[in-house]
Amino acid sequence: MFFTSGTPSAEPTSQPTATPAQTPGPSELPVTTTGMTTGKVLENLSNSLSESIAQPAVRVGKELKSMLLDPPPAKAVVQPTVRPSIRPGDKPRLMGGLTVLIPAYNEGKFVADTIKSVQAQSVHVDHIIVIDDCSTDNTGDVARACGPEIVVIRPPKNCGSKATALNFGMEYVSTEYTMAIDADTTLAPDAIEKLMPHFDKPNTAVVCGMVIPRYVNTIWERGRYIEYLYAFLFYKPIQDFYERPLIASGCFSAYKTDVLRQIGLWNTRTVGEDMDLTWCVYKLGMAVRFSPEAICYPVEPHNFHFMSKQLQRWCAGFAQCIQVHWQTVVETPVLRSMIGTAMWDVVISALAYFILLPLLAVFVHPAFLLGYVLDMPTIVVPVLIYAWKRGEFWKALSSIPAFWVVRFVNTYFVTRAFWNEFIAKRRIHVFEKGH
Question: What is the model's pTM?
Answer without folding.
Answer: 0.77
